[in-house]
Amino acid sequence: MTWSRALKKAARSGLTIERTKLTPLIALRGAAGVALVIGLCLWRGDPTLAVSSAFGAYASGIVTFQRSMRPRPVLALAVAGALALSTFLGYLAAARLVSFVLLLAGWTLLAGMAWAIGPVAGLIGTQTVAIMLVTVTLPTSVLGALEHAALMFFGGLVQATLIVVLPVRPWGVQRDALADALADEADYARRLRHDPVAPFDPSPLMDARLASALTPRQARRRPVQLHGPRGLAERVRPVLASLADPVVGAPLEGPERDRARDLLGAAATVLDAVAHAVRHARPVRLPPEAMAVLEVPATGPMLHGAARRSAYRLISLLADAVELTDEPVRSTRPTTEAERGHLLRPSVPRLVPGALRSLHREARWSSHVLRHALRVSAVATAGYLLGTVLPFGHGYWAPLASVMVMRPDFAQTYSRGIARFIGTLVGVTVAGALMALAHPGAYVSGGLAVVSVGLMYLLMRTGVSVTSACGAAYVVFLLGLAGAGWEQTVQERVVLTLLGGLLAMLSYALFPAWETPKLRDRLAAWLEANGRYALAVFDLYATPAERRPRQIRDALLDSRAARAAWEESEARAEKEPVRHRGLSPASAKAAGAALATMGRVTMILEVHLPERDAAASPGATAFAFELRACLEEATQAVRERSALNWSELRDVWERWDAEDESRGVALRVADLQLDALDDLAEALSREPRTDDGADDGADRDAPDGGSR
């Protein structure tokens, strides 16, 4: 992709306004928190303190809208504490330019590295830098700095208190995550009726798993509806795939396929009903037609073999899902450690070791997080110095714009930069015109600021340009409350915001962290994780007595994580203006589809695991042994662009096929595994081709970014 095409796509993405579900009650609660702290400080008679406390409430309100499974009050207090610390340190260093620039560079570097912990931590770090740049311009003493920091924390404390006192949809995030997973499985069941090997994105199940991690206090208060359906959803998905698969499940044509389609349609109806009940905290309502289909017919087309077992298993799981969900929605029950049924969420102090490990893991030159941290630190420092030198005054607008738009990947940085400038231009123009025409007093300016922040909270998920316009108006009204002239604010904000956005975009062009060279590493990691998952399942056929379900579950989770890393990397690479470097977009899609098929057929085999007292399978033993030997060479070949060769594994399967007259499920799944591996080899053997109009010069100038 050329730079011009990449910039056009980034601009179109950034300026897109999405139609999304609004949350007016939550937005009203956040705006009320901002209004409360502004009103209290104005009542006390100090507008500058009102600005500090309002920024604390503003940032705490923003972070509670993020898709985090942490309790909302904890998020509000966390960002308030970080803001208070950054603001106090900024006040101490603001008296001297050198000391403040050094603090800004170091703090911004740490804030950039916070993306290694997670997106919410990265957003908190970004907010601390942005608020520090604004608030330290308000003159004060050391004691005044302590007061400003305390009021910053007070703003977050008010937001946290309102969340506790005025809850809106308690457990709403957890309910939505679980309901999304169930609804996605319902859609999967419908697609399987027409496409027996339809793909499935496990992301909703991964989100539901994150949502099920609870603190001990949360576990004691969790509604019954959230207690069991996630585990059932995990077990339903492979059963659906096993029933629909034409090799392992029902034949592709005939009365058995018709019966399988009916069961899949009924399963979709039941899963949708359960998802609706979980999302809205209501009892399950099932149509009688679906219940009739799930009855075992006395006559008529019947399933046989593995398909019959899958059908019985599906009916049982759906009945359990309805029974677990159709409970009194207000009931709770104590959960003991022995049967808690949830993942334990660590407390905030226990997060520190994990966060340090994440930072250490990303502290390498090839890491896109480290490059982002260095990039944003250099840009913030350069922007602040340029803003100081330029004759506009209030030079913090330039680094503020840079910090707010910069993200670890190219597409987000460019799309957010364009959207933020357009949104800022609109917000500053409208707010500046109101300030010029009306000359409002402190209370009216505070009221306009509250309206602006309320609109921003309400329209948070519609697009960056919309939220940037509301946020820009909020800052103009808030600084007008503290006595800043609107004319100066408008002129500075537009020019310096443009400068900050240009610095951010230029920094990524000069010091990129491209994902394209990493695609083969990501693909090799996914192949390796899929192989471990397949080996864990085949090993149970080789030694049924040594049944280890936990090992299979851990391997499945690793496979999902590797797939998510691949898909994220592929999505980023598609938007980058660099050459494909030996893995063209077509080859990448074909290779990803092959590995997704490999994971799907392994999941099908997991449905039909033998009992502990079953006889060992010599064929499965030999196949697992050869697969283990091939995997290491194959993953290395993917990284080094060598040819993949599965001929020896095919020979082992052919001997197994000749010796096994029963043609059991394991043998048939092994054949499907080989087909998927052959598809992978074919996808990677295609001659790499440069896309039409690709910018080879961009590739020559770009660093390797960790390619091996």
Automatic annotation (TrEMBL):
Subcellular location, principal: membrane
Keyword Transmembrane attributed: yes
Biased amino acid composition, Basic and acidic residues: 684-708
Domain of life (superkingdom): Bacteria
Domain Integral membrane bound transporter as annotated: residue spans: 384-506
Parts of the chain that traverse the membrane: 21-43, 74-94, 100-117, 124-143, 149-168, 373-397, 417-437, 466-486, 493-511
Membrane topology: Multi-pass membrane protein
Pfam annotation, one family: FUSC_2
Region named Disordered: 683-708
InterPro entries assigned to the protein according to its UniProt record, in alphabetical order: Memb_transporter_dom
Keyword Hydrolase: no
Subcellular location: Membrane
Keywords assigned: Membrane, Transmembrane, Transmembrane helix
The protein, known as: FUSC family protein
Organism the protein comes from: Streptomyces mooreae
